[in-house]
């Protein structure tokens, strides 16, 4: 542990002030953006569905990322899928789908010795594991990039360097020998105080510093190579052909789907409404079976000013997305309009409509234009994770990370064709968007806000997927398809979707096909005039969050009904309001604020946290989610103070776990000169990607 003096944390809204400012533009200071009086679960009458037994998806078709197992002639063909496929009976094409042994349905036992909660200024892993930094903010990744110098930053340099605040990670195999891979990383946002020496205020930044921040947002693609025969990976030396930056300064995207080219997406700079520049606040994401990466545009609202002068007819929808419409400069504004006028809604009100989408990038085709899929709806996208349904349709599950917002799924119009990558690249361009309505099966009176289980012994029930838009047809009264996609939150309001405790990452299990959503926390639940508790959101002033497990009826991911339960209600196991699948709570690790979820190939659930409210650094946890070990949660890793744990990504050979250490040292009062963390290099804090492996070559977690 370093000997520096850490600034005293100043908590606001239950978490650090710097986090509140930079992460979400002080969202807690603003009214909850969902003002509707949708019924929430406690109010809902039975919708006539019967609770059915849990149904397993066809496990035989599950796919995992397989290093060295793919057999294709081109880089694109070598893309091995990392997303689960529930369809049985469709033999994967060569180069597409290493499957063997992926889906026994029996998870490998998690034998590692859990690490204790701690506040150390380093990454902690279990005994018997090593870890190393793979890449950090500012590392050169494109030809001509200068070595990073915190005192000599420029936008031109940052455009060629690894961006700030790495969040979602994917590690995709490249070639056939298991020695090369492509790392794809989101760069969600910037912490200007931790980037620029001498920083005073956002308003006082130079325009060039604003441009650096814009260049530090977006995504990166970096070729990696395996270190020897270990589970360690590092940037490939001397190879840049696949390396790429997607930034807010200059990267053109293409809109697809029903809203592409619509009036709501047209601007002075893009009168066709088809070519937005940049991707913004990219949080989590997913990997498709055809080897592309999806990324969610999340808290885009905080980058816009001038909402007070936006057209009156747009103000309600702007406000529903958290954009301040009563003042020119909302709190937390980054003043990007000083570098590019498009961030001033008084002049370019439609620019805000061009963010909040799911983007798809193809790391195997360095020249390809990334896309934003309007058919998947616009909200504060945490991410999207795909499963191929038994029918062959592709289904993406998506959370809208806001207090009292919704869970969505998208079902493609066309079917997945194994081996036909050109076809599969079009699957997310057309389909049907649904929003979730979640109903408890216990009497509302038994959900008392304390977390006490109802008399049937479970927070559980049934649910429905309510159709919003299919193709060009809207199912929302009074809204066109374009309106319902661009204002998906308003569409969800109109149909009575269930207000959840901040849905973050949502991921299907590659083994069972069940869907797991991290509901990270909601300190406003049942507080004041905010909505009360319900069976899926059962705790008042929920500080620690819960995991929502969804089982599609009949194992049909394209269907419209499901059952659900809460397998984990997070917090200190000694706290009676917590629940760990019925497992002996004296044997589980404390966990708070689940954010990103992932699976290893045998179906163990890995959970990364953001905002631990139990006095420890954030970390990564793992648990079996089926069988007698369900709920036996163990802490695998912690990150430095102020950081959240992102990713995570477990490689298909299960020899490596990647995590993104985002915003280390994000503690109020910290600066470059007076850091709250000196990780990873001992000088000042830098976001970085870390890989963990076993020096004995063993399988991670076992
Ligand atoms: Fe960027 Fe929902 O966390
Ligand atoms: Ca119940
Ligand atoms: Ca997140």
TrEMBL record:
Coiled coil regions, renumbered to chain:
none
One Pfam family, short name: PhoX
Residues spanning the membrane = none
* Entry superkingdom: Bacteria
Q: Which InterPro entries match?
A: PhoX, TAT_signal
Signal peptide, first to last residue: none
Q: Which PANTHER family match?
A: DUF839 DOMAIN-CONTAINING PROTEIN, SLR8030 PROTEIN
What's this protein's name?
Phosphatase
């Amino acid at each position: 542990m370093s000997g520096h003096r850490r600034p005293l944390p100043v908590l606001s809204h239950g978490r650090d002030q710097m986090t509140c400012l930079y992460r979400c533009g002080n969202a807690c200071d603003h009214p909850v953006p969902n003002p509707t009086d949708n019924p929430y679960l406690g109010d809902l009458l039975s919708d006539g569905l019967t609770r059915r037994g849990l149904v397993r998806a066809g496990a035989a078709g599950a796919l995992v990322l397989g290093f060295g197992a793919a057999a294709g002639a081109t880089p694109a063909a070598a893309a091995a899928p990392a997303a689960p496929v529930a369809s049985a009976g469709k033999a994967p094409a060569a180069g597409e789908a290493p499957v063997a042994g992926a889906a026994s349905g029996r998870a490998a036992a998690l034998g590692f010795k859990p690490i204790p909660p701690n506040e150390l200024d380093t990454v902690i892993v279990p005994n018997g594991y090593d870890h190393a930094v793979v890449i950090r903010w500012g590392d050169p990744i494109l030809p001509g990039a200068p070595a990073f110098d915190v005192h000599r930053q420029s936008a031109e340099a940052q455009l060629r360097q690894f961006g700030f605040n790495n969040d979602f990670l994917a590690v995709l195999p490249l070639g056939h020998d298991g020695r090369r891979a492509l790392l794809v990383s989101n760069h969600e946002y910037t912490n200007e105080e931790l980037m620029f020496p001498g920083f005073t205020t956002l308003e006082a930044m130079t325009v060039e510093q604003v441009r650096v921040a814009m260049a530090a947002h977006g995504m990166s693609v970096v070729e990696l190579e395996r270190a020897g025969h270990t589970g360690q990976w590092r940037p490939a030396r001397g190879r840049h052909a696949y390396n790429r930056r997607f930034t807010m300064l200059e990267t053109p995207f293409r809109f697809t789907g029903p809203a592409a080219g619509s009036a709501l997406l047209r601007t002075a700079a893009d009168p066709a409404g088809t070519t937005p520049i940049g991707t913004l606040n990219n949080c989590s994401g997913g990997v498709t079976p055809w080897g592309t990466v999806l990324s969610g545009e999340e808290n885009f609202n905080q980058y816009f000013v001038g909402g007070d002068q936006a057209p009156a007819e747009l103000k309600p929808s702007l406000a529903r997305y958290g954009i301040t419409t009563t003042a020119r400069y909302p709190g937390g504004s980054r003043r990007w309009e000083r570098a590019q006028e498009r961030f001033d809604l008084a002049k370019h009100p439609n620019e805000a409509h061009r963010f909040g989408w799911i983007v798809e990038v193809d790391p195997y085709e360095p020249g390809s234009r990334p896309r934003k899929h309007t058919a998947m709806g616009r909200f504060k996208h945490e991410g999207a994770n795909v499963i191929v349904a038994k029918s062959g349709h592709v289904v993406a599950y998506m959370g809208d990370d806001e207090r009292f917002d919704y869970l969505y799924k998208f079902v493609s119009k066309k079917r997945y064709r194994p081996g036909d990558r050109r076809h599969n690249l079009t699957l997310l361009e057309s389909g049907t968007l649904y929003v979730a309505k979640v109903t408890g099966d216990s009497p509302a009176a038994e959900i008392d806000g304390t977390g006490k289980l109802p008399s049937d012994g479970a927070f559980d029930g049934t649910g429905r997927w309510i159709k919003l838009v299919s193709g060009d047809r809207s199912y929302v009264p009074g809204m066109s398809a374009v309106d319902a996609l661009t204002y998906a939150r308003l569409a969800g309001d109109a149909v009575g979707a269930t207000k959840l405790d901040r849905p973050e990452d949502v991921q299907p299990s590659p083994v069972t096909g069940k869907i797991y959503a991290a509901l990270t926390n909601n300190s406003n639940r049942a507080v004041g005039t905010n909505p009360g508790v319900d069976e899926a959101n059962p705790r008042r002033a929920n500080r620690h969050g819960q995991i929502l497990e969804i089982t599609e009826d009949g194992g049909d991911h394209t269907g419209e009904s499901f059952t659900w339960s809460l397998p984990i209600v997070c917090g200190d196991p000694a706290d009676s309001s917590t629940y760990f699948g019925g497992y002996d709570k004296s044997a589980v690790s404390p966990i708070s604020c689940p954010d990103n979820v992932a699976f290893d190939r045998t179906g163990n659930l890995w959970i990364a946290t953001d905002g631990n409210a139990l006095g420890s650094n954030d970390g990564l946890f793992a648990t079996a989610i089926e069988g007698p070990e369900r709920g036996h949660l163990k802490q695998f890793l912690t990150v430095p103070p102020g950081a959240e744990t992102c990713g995570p990504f477990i490689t298909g050979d299960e020899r490596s776990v990647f995590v993104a250490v985002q915003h280390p040292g994000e503690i109020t009062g910290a600066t470059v000169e007076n850091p709250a963390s000196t990780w990873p290099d001992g000088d000042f804090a830098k976001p970085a990607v870390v890989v963990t492996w076993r020096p004995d070559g063993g399988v991670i977690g076992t």
